[in-house]
Amino acid sequence: MDLMRKKDHQKNVFSHFRLRGFFDLYCTQGPSTTKGFKAQQTKHPYFEVIETGWSKVDPLFPIEKKEKTNTVMIASTFTESLSLAYNDDIYQEVKRLSNQGVFNFIMVLHPKMPEAIVSKWKSISNVNFKFHNTTDLIPLYKQADIMFADTTSAIQEFLLQKKPVVTFKHTFKHDYLIHLENPYDLENSLKKPYYTLSN
To answer: Quick one: which of 7, 31, 43, 104 has the most CB atoms within 10 Å?
Structure first.
């Protein structure tokens, strides 16, 4: 996409858009991005801006309540310094919890993840852990009761369901996330009574 959001790390906001001149139409997901693109359009009147909504997540709606099954969706970014998938302590904890049947885990990794990392996670072989080789995340969002992630953008999509998210070493301490720093606190974090958020 011909858009880069530049983060203002001190204010924890997206401060502006940088255009690269590749497109003559920008379709925005809502007022927050439409406003930024419209402001740029006045300076660079070679493109149109249309607010189309966030079509990628349309299949999530209407949100349907389901019986909870203690299913945890694990999602991870591919950037090694930010990714939980590279952390061996996290791997061992997920393996332990799945072997004990404490939770049902479903996992998806970014398509650019190295094959060695993918193979490592796929090696967890028990009925309580399932690796999904897909980029179609909507069915997994619906199946899961809670998400365990790092800084992946899948968090924002999952939160639309008003379901809780546990993050590992997230860049920003947002108050709507359950923050985890120590891998050995994973079980307690997932057991916290945040499931009521989905009611």
So the answer is: 104
